[in-house]
Design a protein that fits this description.
binds manganese (II) ion, 3-stranded parallel β-sheet, alpha/beta, about 50% helix, binds alpha-D-allopyranose, 15 helices
Length: about 425
């Protein structure tokens, strides 16, 4: 079965939208020219933007109550790669895939071959010690890298080292470590000793990292542990990354903070001390909701990118945090959600690139609060969609990826080859 989108379909799709795009693009070019902004430079910049797709994001997600499978869901990692290939083909903003082990365990050379045939490469590897795996000797019920039992900690260390080995064979260059370790009741654990055990165990993983690799430590305030977590916040994450050494840095998942926390301030702090490693983009209303990026609070996403663009201007091209999506798609087609999320993140990046930083610095120096705030708003209010559409079209993507995907009938086509996964597998992916 052909699991690719035909290039002719995309060409036809684009032809039908060409004149509308031309009109919108020249109108925006004229508008930006009045602001002394070169639209072509921005379109180039949009073309350089990339965000990784989480392999687990192409399957339908669920909650602890239920999971409602969609049609034609990927059965295994090779199907997942096919879906990621579609997302990249249509958006041209997602050239890499982030794998989760053991969910995506498969022959590395077969994975590499399929990925490259789809124009994809591999991003950060993700270890999984928040679930028990088949045939494992020790349970993670009471923790993994921070467990009170040494043999359990060693098992978790071994798993992480295995993820590095697989990643080396795939051409990945980073390991993201997120653990469910923590406690559910006051008094359940000695919080200081638990953190010490975690640090010692992660150090053993760190020494196994190749020189060119990075280790990302991902914090999360709660869930599955509901009283305390061992990597609770960006402060703990920063301490871990500092203790480990220069190859370790912090990963900021937008959903992993207390409500209303100022995430852009965290971004600024971590970058200032060289420990901002990367992101898991998503959006949330109440907790770690894993909703589509930019679907709830696009201004917050913009403000995060406002910091990132500012840091990039100061630090130059050496500043390259890893961008990944981490979402759970429970009620939408995951391919549609991932395409529109990648575009939302790219949009925030381009809007943030529009901020008149010289003017902003002047207003800040003069304590002109209103004009400083208006300077950000002016960039945020600019409809940069023609730039994103133009960039996609120039690179062989679709002007409107969701529409092109629906026109292709991809989901229906793969559903015959991918029968529904039987059994009720509830749970968050
Ligand atoms: C978790 C974390 C972490 C993990 C993922 C797995 O965000 O990134 O890899 O979800 O589903 O909540
Ligand atoms: Mn995450
Ligand atoms: Mn999460």
């Amino acid at each position: 079965m052909n699991t690719r989108i035909a290039p002719e379909l995309v060409e036809q799709h684009n032809r039908a939208r060409q004149s509308e795009l031309d009109a919108d693009y020249s109108a925006l070019a004229a508008h930006l020219q009045r602001r002394h902004v070169d639209i072509e430079a921005l379109t180039q910049r949009a073309g350089q933007f990339a965000v990784a797709i989480p392999s687990w994001g192409v399957g339908t997600g669920g909650t602890r109550f239920a999971r409602f499978p969609g049609v034609g869901e990927p059965r295994h990692v090779f199907d997942k790669l096919d879906d990621c290939g579609v997302i990249q083909h249509l958006t041209r903003a997602t050239p890499t895939v982030s794998l989760h082990i053991p969910w995506d365990d498969a022959d590395p050379s077969a994975l590499r071959e399929q990925a490259s045939s789809l124009g994809l490469a591999f991003d950060a590897m993700n270890s999984n010690t928040f679930q028990n795996q088949e045939h494992q000797a020790y349970s993670y019920k009471f923790g993994s890298l921070s467990h009170t039992d040494q043999a359990t900690r060693e098992q978790a260390i071994e798993h992480n080292i295995r993820c590095i080995e697989i990643g080396k064979a795939l051409g990945s260059e980073a390991l993201t470590v997120w653990v469910g370790d923590g406690s559910n009741f006051p008094g359940q654990v000695h919080m200081g000793q638990q953190f010490d055990r975690y640090l010692e165990a992660l150090q053993a993983v760190y020494v196994a990292l190749p020189d060119s690799w990075q280790l990302f430590t991902e914090h999360k305030m709660y869930e599955p542990a509901f009283y305390s977590t061992v990597v609770q916040d960006w402060g703990s994450s920063y301490l871990i990354a500092s203790e480990l050494g220069p190859k370790a840095s912090c990963l900021v998942d937008l959903g992993h903070h207390a409500p209303n926390v100022n995430i852009e301030m965290i971004v600024s702090r971590l970058a200032r001390f060289g420990k901002l490693g990367g992101f898991h983009f998503n959006d949330s209303k109440y907790g770690d909701d894993d909703l589509d990026s930019g679907s709830i609070d696009p201004y917050r996403l913009f403000l995060v990118f406002n910091e990132l663009v500012d840091i990039e201007k100061r630090q130059g091209s050496s500043f390259k945090p890893a961008y990944m999506l981490d979402q759970s798609h429970n009620v939408t087609d995951p391919i549609e959600s991932l395409m529109s999320s990648a575009i939302e993140v790219q949009r925030a990046f381009i809007q943030a690139s529009l901020v008149d930083r010289e003017a902003l610095a002047g207003y800040q120096a003069d304590n002109d609060v209103m004009m400083a705030s208006q300077t950000l708003k002016q960039a945020f209010r600019t409809d940069v969609d023609p730039i994103l559409r133009q960039s996609r079209k120039q690179q062989g993507g679709a002007i409107d990826p969701v529409a092109a995907y629906r026109e292709s009938g991809y989901r229906q086509a793969v559903s015959t080859a991918r029968p529904a996964i039987s059994g009720s597998s509830s749970g968050i992916v």
